[in-house]
């Protein structure tokens, strides 16, 4: 099966499976799992933060950040199209008890002046602005310019509001920008990034920040049910992901750009080429389509895809997807369009 639904479908590599089998483990709640400790230390050093914490998922890491940064009733400033708003089940209201104040996003880019104007003054009737959240790479497939992040961080520092970054695909962003990861993470106080997705680990994400923040987050992780025991079995795969798989992301990006160009040649298909920064291809079919039939058609051809979201389709390249697989997907869409519109 050619799976273009997401980069979350990647399977652990042979090296990961071997590392998992041979992992030295302990009890992470007691802090004596050497594989988890090594992963957290390596991750923190890699991205230029004082400390890091291994968590079960990206959503867990983001929500743990909100819970740790904020007091109940705080307001969080973030883009109206970001993952925390769109795809985390309203967890911020349930777990951290915060209010999300969404700002207009220009394909993931927030206006620093807009953020500045929305930070609350101290006043009896106002909630406290507890946090600003950014996302890079953005889940719409674009990478946010470092200049934009720097401007927002300067405002946040001046107004004494912390900045958290959802960096689920952080290393896709570094690959696109061709910079060291610290060039991105210097513009946030805390960051979450996934070890799964394009990096292929089976489970897990990292939340990183100052030592004092991570000390508080560790206790909140326990509160949220995320304190694991012999977690070194999966942390071992995370180490392989960080050490070996970051360099593979460019292949995914190249396949996505190739796919976008091929899809753009199909009559009746509009590809958002300017948005192909990482491994995601967004496109629109310019005629009325039975999307359930489209998904079934692809499935019968041995290709897994998701349906549309507000009329927009997304194909995601990931580890193991070849140019031949891309050609097969494009041919399948071409055949579907011919059968249904000619």
Automatic annotation (TrEMBL):
Give an example GO molecular function.
L-allo-threonine aldolase activity
Q: Which residues form the Aromatic amino acid beta-eliminating lyase/threonine aldolase domain?
A: 3-284
Q: What is its EC number?
A: 4.1.2.48
Q: Name the Pfam families for this protein.
A: Beta_elim_lyase (PF01212)
Q: Which UniProt keywords apply?
A: Lyase, Pyridoxal phosphate
Highest taxon in the source lineage: Bacteria
Q: Name one GO biological process term.
A: glycine biosynthetic process
Q: Which InterPro entries match?
A: ArAA_b-elim_lyase/Thr_aldolase (IPR001597), Low_specificity_L-TA-like (IPR023603), PyrdxlP-dep_Trfase (IPR015424), PyrdxlP-dep_Trfase_major (IPR015421), PyrdxlP-dep_Trfase_small (IPR015422)
Q: Which residues carry this modification: N6-(pyridoxal phosphate)lysine?
A: 197
Q: Which GO terms describe its cellular component?
A: cytosol
Class of enzymatic activity (EC top level): lyase
Keyword set includes Ribosomal protein: no
Q: Where is the signal peptide?
A: none
Q: What family is it from? A: Belongs to the threonine aldolase family.
Protein name from the UniProt record? Low-specificity L-threonine aldolase
The record lists the organism as Vallitalea pronyensis
The encoding gene is ltaE
């Amino acid at each position: 099966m050619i799976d273009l639904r997401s980069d979350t479908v990647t399977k652990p590599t042979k090296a990961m499976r071997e590392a998992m089998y041979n992992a030295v483990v302990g009890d992470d709640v007691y802090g004596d799992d050497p594989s988890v400790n090594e992963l957290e230390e390596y991750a923190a050093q890699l991205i230029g933060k004082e400390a890091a914490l291994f968590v079960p998922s990206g959503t867990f890491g983001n929500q743990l950040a909100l819970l740790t940064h904020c007091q109940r009733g705080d307001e969080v400033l973030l883009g109206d199209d970001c993952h925390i708003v769109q795809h985390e089940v309203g967890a911020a209201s349930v777990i951290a008890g915060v209010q999300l104040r969404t700002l207009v996003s220009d394909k993931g880019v927030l206006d620093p002046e807009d953020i500045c104007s929305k930070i609350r003054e101290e006043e009896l009737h106002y909630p406290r602005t507890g946090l600003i959240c950014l996302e890079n790479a953005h889940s719409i497939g674009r990478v946010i310019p470092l200049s934009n992040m720097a401007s927002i961080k300067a405002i946040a520092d001046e107004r004494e509001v912390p900045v958290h970054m959802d960096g689920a695909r952080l290393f896709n962003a570094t690959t696109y920008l061709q910079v060291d990861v610290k060039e991105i993470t210097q513009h946030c106080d805390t960051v979450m990034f996934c070890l799964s997705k394009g990096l292929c680990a089976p489970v897990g994400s990292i939340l990183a920040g100052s030592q004092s923040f991570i000390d508080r987050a560790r206790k909140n992780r326990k509160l949220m049910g995320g304190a694991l025991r012999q977690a070194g079995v999966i942390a071992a795969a995370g180490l392989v992901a960080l050490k070996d798989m970051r360099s593979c992301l460019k292949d995914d990006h190249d396949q996505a750009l190739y796919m976008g160009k091929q899809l753009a040649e199909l009559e009746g298909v509009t590809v958002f080429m300017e948005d192909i920064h990482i491994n995601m291809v967004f496109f629109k079919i310019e005629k009325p389509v039975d999307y359930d039939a489209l998904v079934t058609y692809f499935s019968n051809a041995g290709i897994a895809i998701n349906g549309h979201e507000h009329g927009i389709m997304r194909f995601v390249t990931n580890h193991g997807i070849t140019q031949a697989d891309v050609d097969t997907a494009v041919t399948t869409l071409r055949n579907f369009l011919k059968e249904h519109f000619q």
